[in-house]
Structures are given as structure tokens and as C-alpha cells.
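re the bet — no i am not wrong, look at it urself. input seq straight from the record:
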Amino acid sequence: MKSYAEYLECTNCHKEYDYVNPYRTCQECGKVLYVKYDMEKARKNFDRNSLVGRVSSMWRYYEMMPIKDESNIVSLGEGMTPLLKADNLGKALNCSDIYIKDEGCNPTGSFKARGLSAAVSRAKELGVTKLTMPSAGNAGGALSLYCARGNLEANVFMPKDAPIANKRESSDAGAKLTLIDGLISDAGKISREQAQEKGLFDVSTLQEPYRAEGKKTMGYEIAEQLQWDTPDVIIYPTGGGTGLIGIWKAFQEMQELGWIDKPKTRMIAVQSEGCAPIVKAYQSGALNAEMWNDAKTFAAGIRVPSAIGDYLILEAIRKSSGTALTVTDMEMMECISIMASNEGIYPAPEGAATLAALKLLLASNEVKPEEKIVLMNTGNAYKYLDMWD
């Protein structure tokens, strides 16, 4: 197989970069870089029918992935998670077509496995041996495990109040784990300082181009699992936002490949009312989000007071005619039980937030009961049990 990855491009100023050096962000404006593909060749040579019989993981889409040499892939079998029809929830909510994309089935228990598989694989390909990142929990655990798999060094900076499971998996996997007072933004500052001092490659959310390439495979899978259709609505719990913008990127790529019609999906971001910088920016009409002060929510994955990709999240929401809204921690708690008792899926708090959001959107008539709706459960609850004792 051949990857059609060709170069990097800034999502803001559109400056292009070669594909042989370990760039992280745009050297001109400091914004997010995207991997760009030779779409003309891909259209001619990569047909969706070629997927039949391929490996049941995110690497089935190899031609549209960032690794040039397959031998550099560091994988634990991530991706191709179930897209489950939620008929019981549908009956309870009077909806005919609800699905749950269960990312808790990934090897490390969350969607973070996708991004870190791609990032660690590309780091290995570029000759990078020491990686660092700040994490609210799941990403740090995933980095640690994938680095162990790929024989690379992982440095993880995590808030002291992160879930115990995430701290244990990082340390048990051999990462150099540093626990800090404060939030992920504080951990990020220390991680960046260490990167400069010790020559570490920083794989923070959207501060390198490759995690988004792993996350985008959720979009490819959703379309494939829906027989190359796109849903009317995707509700995504949004912290750093890589998953939401990754899915949107995938839809644009698949349309250009000729695999799907123009996506009809409205991208909807849900945040906790205790940490909602994207919702505030969306509602005010701003192009960028301000730092959220005193961020508070037990849903660690969306306790992100500032996101470098804020403008990309807001762009995806607006271009798709989507929206952004908040839910409370109590509503998340209730929806963990509702999803578990109705569908047998035990969601992370962030995943439960999507159900809480759907209930509000149905009540406000922003989502119609007859629409095809996908709720993104980004992880499983087992990694959070200590957070609500």
C-alpha cells in the first residue's frame, strides 16, 4: 500500500512545509498544521471497495494516513470501534435513528488511542525518540502505552487530580510521569519548558500534525459503517477538539475522494458548564475562544480551559450549521446511568455529556426526532470510577 501524504500546510496562513522534517506548528504564525495528501492520485488509485478484507483497525485507511513506511506503524489494534444502534434510547426519547460510536472499545479505553498511534508512529518514522505531552488523563496513558510498544521514551505531565487509572497506566507503562498542581494548561506550560530544555518532541493536542490524522479515522469509520452515508447530527464532547475537527476533516477528504456525497452532518460540540470556552465563543460570534478561568468539571477530558485549535472547532461547527451547548456535571452523571441501563454501554462522563446534550437539543427542537444522530462516547467509565466516589 502507498500513503498519499505529501506535505504539511498551515490551517491559518496556508504556508506549506516539507514532509521530511519534524515540524510541529506553523513557524510563521504558530497555528495548527494539517497533513495534506495528493488527492488526484488518491482519487485514481484508492477506491473504497479496496477496503474489503482489510485489517479491522484504523490502519485500513492507510493511503490516507500519515505514515510513509508501513514498518513504522505502532499499533495495538485501535479503531473500527462499534457503531451501535441505540433502539432502547430511541424509544425512551421518541427518536427513530440514534447510534452510539463506542470509543471505549479502543485498546487504551478511549479515542485517544487513535491519535497517539498515529503520532507515535510518525515520530518513529521521523527518527524522534523522546516525546512529551500534558494530559488530563487518557492521552497521557495512551502515549505511555504506545511509546512502550514502539520503544520510545514518554514524558507525561498530568494534574494531580487526574483519574487514578490514567496515572497508573502511565507509570506502569514506563513513562516519566510528573504530577503537577493545577489544570492541563498548567501541565502544558511545564511540558513545553521541558521540551525546550531536554530536546523532547511535544505531541500536545494539535501542536503537532499527526494526532488529528488518527482521530479523523472516526469519520471514515462512521461513513463506512453507515454504508457510505453521513448522519444528520454528530454530538461530540469537546475539550481540545481534535476529535471533532478530525471527523470534519475526514468528511471533506472522503467527499474529495468521491466516496461520499457532500456531508449533511451538523457538528455539535458539548462542554461542561464549568468549562465552556468554545460554547462561549460560539454564542458570542467570536472566531477564537478566550481562556476559561477557574475551570471545574469532573469530566477530566473536557476540562480544557484553552485550545490551540479553537478556530478550527468553531469553523467546523459553523460551516456544518451545527451548534455548541453546555450540560451540568449532574446531567452527565445521570446520563451515565441512563446509557448503561438502556444500552449496556458504560460511558465516560464525556460520552454521557452527548446524551445530556441530545435531550436538551430535542427539547429545543434543534434536533428532530426523525434525524440520524450519532453520539460519540469517547471512552469508558471504568477509568473514572474514583472521580465520583
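see?? The mean pLDDT is 96. told u. also Residues 295 and 364 are 27 Å apart (CA to CA). so pay up
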